[in-house]
Amino acid sequence: MTRRKLPISTSSTVLPFALAPVASAVTSFAVVTANDMIPGLPCQPLAVALAAKMGWSALPILIAGQSTAGILAFTISRKAGDGEKVKEAMDKLSPEMREKFTEFRSLGGDDKTGVKTLLALIALRLTPFFPFSAGNYLLGGGTSVGTIPFSLATVLGCVGSNVLSVGVGVGMFS
Fold first, then answer.
1. Domain map of the chain by residue range?
2. pTM of the model
3. Average pLDDT for residues 61-68, to the nearest whole number?
4. CA–CA separation, 37 vs 123, rounded Å?
5. To 5 degrees, how large is the angle CA 109–CA 111–CA 116?
6. Positive/negative CA dihedral, 47, 49, 52, 55
7. Is residue 42 pLDDT above 80, yes or no?
């Protein structure tokens, strides 16, 4: 009785070992981005868990994933906010509510240099009481804040919050 050797997997069927870290980073980026697109779903537990697994190398993945999610949600909401459904909802509001909403939508429109708006957005990004993902949609569809200040504030805010989350995940504070 002769034994047949089992065929060894080739690189076309199994991810080469050298690409495993790249695949891990890309998958982690996709999970972080998807997680942060869902309003109300906290991102800190995922950030801490990813840092516990990957160490400080999780930091750029988290910053990129959260920033991408923020900018996507902002853009989607901005496009949807110009639609007919928003106009219909506005018509149903009381005059006082319509005035308040119009006032809210003008946020960022009167800042000529953009510095006050940028600083306010960075502070908002670092405030733990303002939900990240819901804020992306709210700022996109509900205000006149520009895409560039929003994007810059989002990236800077993500750096600050994720340094803290990754620090917790790697055990820096224990």
1. 42-169
2. 0.75
3. 96
4. 20
5. 125
6. negative
7. yes
